[in-house]
Each structure stands twice: as structure tokens, then as C-alpha cells.
UniProtKB/TrEMBL annotation:
Cytoplasm keyword on record: no
InterPro entries hit by this protein: GNT1/Glycosyltrans_8, Nucleotide-diphossugar_trans
Keyword Glycosyltransferase: yes
Organism expressing this protein natively: Salvia splendens (Scarlet sage)
Protein name listed in UniProt: Hexosyltransferase
Annotated GO MF terms: glycosyltransferase activity
Swiss-Prot/TrEMBL keywords: Glycosyltransferase, Manganese, Transferase
Length: 397
């Protein structure tokens, strides 16, 4: 521990550096003595936490799969913000790694020197996060309490929004993450939704969750298709400063964000249900999933289309069936659901329910795109014909 840097950080506080009480966590006797020498007039409270149990592995705290309907607790002690009062406090961390940005927010960073980080946290926000389950071995948003989750817009309207990226590079870090500075100007909290998701039911209740809340993906990773974030310019700068230091397991934003936001909160999989038939799914499990895709009203809240996207295929054919590696993402029921919701069928159904006398809603709609080729290796003459140009003259030239 660099006591020279610690001394400089404390001195930078000026009048705020006149501490009356200091809590010292997991330091040895020599380090405790150094603190006494540094701030001799402050009362010291020495706290020692036992080492985590050998059973509390990363896989236990952040399991790949949990039974969301089972009330399960993690095999680790619950944490709590022990400071009960309302007086402001400072937290000093000595670490060579940057602190978890959604737990120790960069806006609350007072000063930093080398491996010494000094924060002045918002106690209410910090308490709320520490009351949530540790890791993701338990739902942070109870499955049965979604509908009852209180959410209302107060008199002073919240700065909240939904956001997506319609056009993104294959290198997702260059697509989604750079939108943060623009969002930070206007919003305090954002529900980010990838463009390959279909929202079937109201998910405003997610605005009650903190950063970073998401569903599980695999191993200890979360899926970034639906996630609650609190956009911040300084967090964005932190991400950019380390973009070359951290390796994304999938080469995209999901892998990179999982390297940064290691403290995340699990929300029910129905809020980001993956269109994926796992290797272990038997015929009954597959039938159950397809039944969910067909159910009306829908049982899930958001459906996430993996593999080839619906707009890359014909409306009545899921082209994931064409590729052996993508067949696990193929489902005619889910594919039809996309187009049933994405096109004007919803409006037509409302017209039918209104029983409009002119009965236009009875007209059978045919998809003219069946004659349209969207692949890069299509016959170029057909493309010219579709574009409506003078293709015969173009052919001769």
C-alpha cells in the first residue's frame, strides 16, 4: 500500500479531510498503525471480515442457470451498508484494478492517485444496491412480483427512456456503447434493447432496477440484449480508456461489458427470452417453447431472436433451418410471431375487433417480397428490375 499516495489524497480534501471517525476494513496491524499516524485525532473502528467460504466460487455466485421459481439464497453472507446515519462519508479503496463502476460510480470519485481511489458515495443509492442479492444466484426482481412492482411517473417526471441501435457494425463496441454520451445528456436511466428483440408486454417496471440489471446468458455472463443502464459520460470514458486492455469473449459489446460490470443483478429470463433450443432440450421442452411463442396473450415479456434475424429471411420461412450451426435458433412459431407483430396485423386485428363496416380488414395481405432477393450474391439483373430502373438499358451499357 502506497502511504505516500494515501497521504496526498487525504490532504487534497482540505477541510473535508478532518475525519472524526475512520472505519478500517481488513488491514493488518502495521497498516492500522500507519492510519493512526496519518490521522491521529480520528477515532478508529477496526473491522475484519472472514475470508469467503471455499464454496463461494464464481460459479456459485454467478451460476449459468437457476430455477427462477425457487426461492434460493446464495451461499455467502449478505452485505449491507453498515453506515446507518445520513452524514456523508468517504470510501478509500487501494486497488490496482478500477472499482466496479456501477457500485462505485465515477461521478462520486473525489480524487485518485495511482492505485488509491477516494469516493464520496450517495448512501441511499449504495444501500439500495447492496440490499439486492449478491451475484446472480437469486433473482433481484422476484418472478412473482413483476406485475406488482410499483412504477409510476411522479410530478417531477423521471429522466428515463428506452434506447436501441438500429444499425450497428459487426464490431458492436463501435455500435452500441458510443451512444452513451448522447443518452447521458438527457437521461438518468435507460432500458437498452437490441434491435433483434420483440417487446410483447409492458416492461416499464425495469426502470425500478439499478445499473446493471440483465438476464443470464451462459456461465457467469449476462446477456446485453435487455439491460438497465445509468448513462454517464465518465463511465463511458472509463470504458473507452480500457477498450484495448480488456478482451471481449465474443468480440462484441456483450463480452466487453461483462468484463467491466462484474457486479450485475439477475432479472427473470421472461424479460429477455432467448429464441434458442438448447442441445439438452427434449421434444417436450421444444414443444413447450413453441407453444409459448404461439400463445396469445404472450407469456413472456420480450423475445430475443438469435441466429439469422427475421428480416434476413422470408416472412414465411425461418432461414436458420438452412445452416447446420444455426438450426438450434430455428422456430417457425417465433419467426411468425415477429412478422405478426412487426407488420400491420396488430392494426388489422384492432380493425376487426372494431367491426368496421367497410371490412377492409378481411382483405388477405400477400407479401410481395417473395419475389425480392436480399442476398449479396443475387442476380444483379433481378435487382435492377426490383429497383425500378431502366434495367434493359443498364444491361446493354
Amino acid at each position: 500500500m502506497d502511504w505516500g499516495e494515501i497521504s496526498k489524497v487525504v490532504n487534497e480534501l482540505g477541510e473535508d479531510g478532518k475525519f472524526n471517525h475512520i472505519g478500517i476494513l481488513n488491514l493488518n496491524m502495521k497498516e492500522i498503525h500507519e492510519w493512526k499516524q496519518l490521522i491521529p485525532h480520528a477515532n478508529q473502528t477496526v473491522l475484519s471480515l472472514d475470508h469467503a467460504s471455499s464454496n463461494a466460487t464464481w460459479e456459485v455466485l454467478y451460476p449459468e442457470w437457476i430455477d427462477e421459481e425457487e426461492e434460493k439464497r446464495c451461499e455467502a453472507a449478505d452485505l449491507a451498508a453498515a453506515h446507518k446515519g445520513t452524514q456523508p462519508l468517504h470510501i478509500l479503496l487501494a486497488t490496482t484494478c478500477f472499482p466496479v463502476p456501477n457500485l462505485f460510480r465515477c461521478e462520486e470519485l473525489v480524487t485518485r492517485r495511482g492505485s488509491i481511489w477516494l469516493y464520496k458515495p450517495n448512501l441511499g443509492r449504495l444501500r439500495d444496491k447492496l440490499r439486492l442479492p449478491i451475484g446472480s444466484c437469486q433473482l433481484a426482481l422476484p418472478l412473482g412480483g413483476i406485475e406488482e412492482q410499483p412504477y409510476s411517473i411522479p410530478r417531477k417526471r423521471r429522466r428515463e427512456a428506452y434506447a436501441t441501435v438500429l444499425h450497428s457494425n459487426y464490431v458492436y463496441v463501435c455500435g452500441a456503447i458510443p451512444q452513451v454520451p448522447a443518452l447521458a445528456q438527457y437521461y438518468d436511466k435507460v432500458i437498452f434493447i437490441d434491435s433483434d428483440l420483440l417487446v410483447l408486454r409492458n416492461i416499464d417496471f425495469l426502470f425500478t432496477m439499478p445499473e446493471l440489471s440483465a438476464t443470464g446468458n451462459h456461465e457467469h455472463m449476462f446477456n446485453s440484449g435487455v439491460m438497465v443502464i445509468e448513462p454517464s459520460n465518465c463511465t463511458f470514458q472509463l470504458l473507452m480508456d480500457h477498450v484495448n486492455d480488456l478482451e471481449s469473449y465474443n468480440g462484441g459489446d456483450q463480452g466487453y461489458l461483462n468484463e467491466v460490470f462484474t457486479w450485475w443483478h439477475r432479472i427473470p429470463r421472461w424479460v429477455n427470452f432467448l429464441k434458442h433450443f438448447w442441445v439438452g432440450d427434449d421434444a417436450v421442452a421444444k414443444k413447450k417453447k413453441n407453444h409459448m411463442f404461439e400463445s396469445d396473450p404472450p407469456g413472456m415479456y420480450v423475445l430475443h431472436y438469435l441466429g439469422n434475424k427475421p428480416w434476413m429471411c422470408f416472412r414465411d420461412y425461418d432461414c436458420n433451418w438452412n445452416v447446420e450451426l444455426l438450426r438450434e435458433f430455428a422456430s417457425y412459431a417465433a419467426h411468425a410471431l415477429w412478422w405478426r407483430k412487426a407488420q400491420l396485423q396488430l392494426d388489422r386485428r384492432e380493425a376487426e375487433m372494431g367491426n368496421f363496416s367497410d371490412a377492409h380488414w378481411r382483405i388477405r395481405v400477400k407479401d410481395v417480397r417473395l419475389e425480392t432477393c436480399i442476398d449479396e450474391d443475387c442476380d444483379w439483373l433481378e435487382r435492377l428490375r426490383h429497383w425500378g430502373g431502366n434495367w434493359k438499358q443498364d444491361c446493354r451499357s
